[in-house]
Q: What sequence folds into this?
């Protein structure tokens, strides 16, 4: 996106961002691969990238929580929390685990 994209352009050279609706130079919009009629401005592309990273982080967090619960069930089934050596360490881990 260069400044020349905004200079000397009439309405014919402009299109609206499909995300925010802001009029933008047509050649400054990012086009979707399978739907080139959809153009998104750079600000919205960055916004969508942040949302995608947030979504990905949520999926990873859920996977980690599931793995931690699986390990917790196995530890409880073996009775390790009641053992005098492993019990205090496992309780400390359980208190400080984010999952
Ligand atoms: Zn936009």
A:
């Amino acid at each position: 996106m260069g400044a020349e994209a905004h200079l000397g352009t009439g309405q014919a050279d402009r299109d609206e961002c499909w995300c925010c609706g802001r009029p933008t130079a047509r050649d400054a919009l990012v086009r979707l691969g399978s739907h080139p009629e959809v153009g998104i401005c750079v600000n919205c592309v960055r916004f969508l990238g942040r949302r995608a990273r947030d979504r990905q982080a949520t999926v990873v967090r859920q996977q980690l929580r599931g793995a931690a619960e699986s390990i917790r069930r196995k530890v409880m089934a073996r009775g390790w929390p009641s053992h005098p050596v492993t019990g205090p360490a496992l309780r400390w881990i359980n208190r400080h685990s984010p999952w």
In short: The pocket of zinc ion is lined by residues 17, 19-20, 22, 40-41, 43-44 (CB under 6 Å).
